[in-house]
Known about the structure:
With 353 residues, this protein is mostly helical. It has helices spanning 8-26, 30-60, 62-79, 99-115, 122-142, 146-163, 167-184, 190-200, 211-222, 234-237, 249-281, 286-310, 328-346, and strands at residues 81-83, 86-92, 95-97. It has one domain.
Amino acid sequence: MSRLEPYLPVVVALIALVGFVTLASAAPDASYVTRQAAWFLAGVVGCVAIFLIGGARVDKLTVPLYVVTLVLLVAVLVFGEEVNGAKRWLEFGPARIQPSELAKVALILLLGRYLAQASSSGVVGYLVVGALVAVPFGLVLIGPDLGSALVIAAIGAGMLFVRGVPTRVLIAAIAIVVVAVPIVVPRLAPHQQARVTAFLNPDADPQGAGYQVTQARIAIGSGGLTGKGWRQGTQTQLDFIPFKHTDFIFPVLSEELGFVGSVFVLALFALMFWRLAVMAMECPRPRDQLVITGVLAYLGFQTLVNVGVSLGLAPVTGLTLPIVSYGGTNLVITLGVLGLAMLVHRDRFRGFA
């Protein structure tokens, strides 16, 4: 048995610390920080549970987890709570879960198993992979939750890339995306279409569809080199930034910590992704490489899009900044998949399953 990855937990802890400090400034009241701390603890407990369960038992849960996730994705379309024009959450008494987050874990595990098999090559194999990705992608997109759907697609693309995709398959996939864009965009919800339009020209409607990005960019720019100081950001404290404790928490830390603080936080994320990449390369078995790659694609893509949205480099998708933004399901799942990656890496010489 190999030793546990020593650096990743430290980097994650530092990112979480930045998140708590920023949330204490951005949240409507102190109870948000308390709940976030409780969820963080739950995520840590989940990591420990994954290590206690072990790779073999986690492997046995792969297919059941995928099936249960699909059932929950259908259930959320029927019974889910609609917030901001999208159905994303299911309520179970006092608890509320987001099935799309669970779908990301289930897909990583299932694709890791399937792509490691020789049968995943060839036309039939790629069609199966496409179906495994397309079903949760489609159910989440119907929500409509474009951001989570794109993360699911990114997980599939990242794992396929590491598995090795023939050029003809890559060209076909790009062609499908090019053809699908003009078909999908008109069928998005009105507010999502407005976000795409605002991305192309945010200054055309600065008080409407372009308001979020406009205020985020103002906050980032006003932070200057070293920032205005904790809880001193005017855009933040005067509530100009929308969803400042969730989707747009990056402009909050940029305004209060400045360029230096923003670069420091982004460097921490870069370190986390670098460690995941190194961990994947250190695994001799294809399946282990694929699982860690799935985790890297999930968190890397979500971080890239969240920061890109705040800078006006990507359309608003509703994706949060991992570990930093407020949100229970996402935080617990994020810590859980990082624990999964560390488990796979630790047991890399004896096999995940």
